[in-house]
Specification:
Layout: E1 4-8, H1 13-24, E2 28-33, H2 36-40, E3 48-51, H3 57-70, E4 77-80, H4 97-123, E5 133-137, H5 141-144, H6 150-156, H7 158-169, E6 175-181, H8 196-204, H9 214-224, E7 236-239
Parallel strand pairs: 1-2, 1-4, 2-3, 4-5, 5-6, 6-7
Helix pairs in contact: 1-9, 3-4, 4-6
Length: about 250
């Protein structure tokens, strides 16, 4: 059966790689993101696109209406890949240090946590039951920090939310899991790129001796959405080449 797969942040990086994997499997994919032109250039065969700021409730309501009209109101797989490095968002106008702290934490929670919560709640009743899948993108930073704490805190906040959802949706036959990648290349997370010395240090932390790829994470998401993973819920699956050991 063709499944309806909704992917936030589906225009680039991990979200785009996941969209390609599901589309290749014959699923119908809806890409969500803030930049319409990026979604339209993602190159995912047959994908639908809808541009929205998922931190704005009114725009998320628009997503729900679009899903009702274009996907017959059924979401089989919901993947939250929107978010990323809040440091790449526009800087605050104030130079006061406390304003900078407030901005960093607010921005990171807005793009990484609020987007996921609003979209999930908007589509909760449209999740296929039984068989629905909700998948969040966490991060290795949720375990070891991210320097400022803001990004790590925003990703870590998804964990208890996912655990609560797993308990609530489990009786309907819907599973909820998180995937926590380590260092992944070929995404927009590091902006213009990572210095060679820092990249080498990240790779040296792994047991596999290489950086992760968006496809590594996409294939894990695809497996968690498969019938083979039907009894796996409320788990955090780490995809980091051994840079962070199991918890």
């Amino acid at each position: 059966m063709t499944r309806n797969v909704v992917i936030s942040g589906g225009g680039t990086g991990i979200g785009r790689a996941a969209a390609q994997v599901f589309a290749a499997d014959g699923d119908r994919v809806l890409l969500l993101g803030r930049r319409r032109e990026v979604l339209e250039k993602a190159g995912v065969p047959g994908a639908l696109t809808y541009a929205a700021d998922l931190a704005e409730p009114e725009q998320v309501r628009g997503v729900r209406e679009f899903v009702a009209a274009e996907l017959d109101g059924r979401v089989d797989v919901l993947i939250h890949s929107a978010g990323g490095n809040g440091g790449l968002e526009p800087a605050p106008e104030s130079e006061d240090p406390l304003d900078a702290v407030a901005h960093a934490w607010s921005v990171n929670f807005r793009i990484n946590t609020l987007t996921a919560a609003l979209l999930t709640e908007a589509l909760r009743e449209q999740l296929a039951a039984p068989g629905g899948r909700v998948l969040f993108l966490s991060s290795i930073a949720a375990y070891r920090g991210s320097g400022s704490g803001a990004y790590a805190g925003a990703k870590a906040a998804l964990h208890p939310y996912a655990h609560d959802l797993a308990r609530e949706l489990g009786p309907r036959g819907v599973t909820v899991n998180l995937v926590a990648p380590g260092y992944v290349e070929d995404t927009e997370f590091f902006g213009a790129g990572m210095p060679a010395e820092r990249r080498a240090a990240r790779i040296a932390e792994t047991s596999t001796g290489r950086a992760g790829t968006p496809e590594d994470v996409a294939q894990t998401l695809h497996w968690l959405a498969s019938p083979a993973a039907g009894h796996i819920t409320s788990q955090v699956i780490q995809v980091n080449g051994g840079a962070e050991r199991g918890h």
